[in-house]
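Question (not urgent): is this output format expected?
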Amino acid sequence: MHNPLIASLFEELAALLEIQGANAFRVRAYRNAARTLESLSESAADIVATAGRSLTELDGIGQDLADKIKMIVETGALPQLEELRAQVPAGVVQMLRISGLGPKKVATLFHELGLTTLVDLKAACESGRVAELKGFGKKTAQSILDGIAHVEEAGSRVLISIARSAAEAIVSDLAQVAGVSQVSIAGSCRRRQETCGDLDILAIAEDSSLPMDRLERHPLVEKVLARGETKQRVRLRGGIELDLRVVPVESYGAAMQYFTGSKEHNIVIRRRAQERGLKLNEYGLFRGDEYVAGRTEAEVYAAVGLPFIPPELRENRGEIELAEAGSLPQLIELADIQGDLHMHTTATDGAATILEMAEAAKARGLKYIAITDHSKRVTMANGLDATRLRQHWRDIDKVRGQISGIEILCGIECDILEDATMDLDDEVLSEADWVIAVLHYGLKQPREQIMQRLLNAIRNPHVDAIGHPSGRLIGSRPSADIDYTTFLNAAAEHGVMLEINSCPSRLDLDDIQAAAAKSRGIPIVIDTDSHSVNGFDVLTYGVDQARRAGLTKHDVANALSWAEFSRRLKSR
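Got this back:
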């Protein structure tokens, strides 16, 4: 059980308790426990398994919470959570995915109007019943309707971080089974899509029943939905379904290629096989009844006249043509990243000090960072006004003298206000080493206003980058209405960098727009937006997004050495 999975269970528990009107201190305790687990640099499961250690050593974790974490680690479930899930309909929990609907408002909808599904909620908004509730009104009702449409469009897909964490935990477990010589993730999770609708795992085993028995007993598995001789389908406790397929060694590569997808990519590969008188399926590549290839994916691609194509590129967006021409990009790797230019400290809403963040970044091999706490508009995060920001930068200067081996930039995450001005004046911004401008509020403004805001920020001589440009939260908040052609052209003209925010709920820029930015020569920065020392762990998701966009290390500004990056900043 990985820390993010355990944390997500505590977050769900807190939300369900709040919906039921539980004691606020109790709710807060579970939320604090979730944050502790998310920022924990070691595995909670390892602490449980280590003699002489206790989870109560962790900040904010008492014996009751420690017992619950231990139960989750050992069984994959928490009886209290199961009871609450039975008491609160799944449709009510789904309402929490609607942007702007927190547990308190959902509780009002549930208890006062008796709404239990998104269908009920939509009807109540349209009839005016929601608008009549205290604290809601017509504007909120319309916002809920917009949010319902977005949630319905997103469906039951889960973030890549949750899907990948679950899949990797199960793969690790199945790899220990006697007779299992190989086991791997396939499907959209392997292609590192932003969300996954289900999971696919392939294995080679001497006896297929053994890994299936092991999967059935796995703590993450809630129910076995189907089981045959070579295929098993289960539902995980988070709701996502997983298929395990046990294949012969001679079919493993063909099966990996087939089940990794995408469908559009595979159609082209199968057509290329047919043009060569071959038949390709999940069992292998055949000429008539004669087996030609299939042990490895490289064999399959070679047989249709192509080099191996990285899974992240398999979307039929030009990767076939690049492969034919021998021009596939050398995709960026996690190890290529030298700096992180977006993070927060206790000066605003972060959980660690400047020094702690710098030490954590250095421990991960980073050579430079920018401390970018919030500007004053973000009042809920204790955003910084000019006076506090300048003091904050003086504090950063002091830390620079306390740590060696890593460079620290005095930065700011500055809001682009609804009136298209910057949250801090140019005199202050001119003193910063690094300015990342963002949209946090007014994301539903018409395109004309959104574009005016973004273009004004791009034209500001003190802005170095635009962070999480669309403002979206995957599955819960749609992006701002952006004219990307105009936006990207302006960024290219003014030499402003664009961010891929690695937070799994953002991954913004998306892969399509990041590829479009690359085509215009716009430098990309891949940042974590860390709010804790463990926040750096999400960098892998940002790199995955960049790989899906076809980016190499030469397309990413913070893959430069410190000397090269600092020269680029000075040239601006």
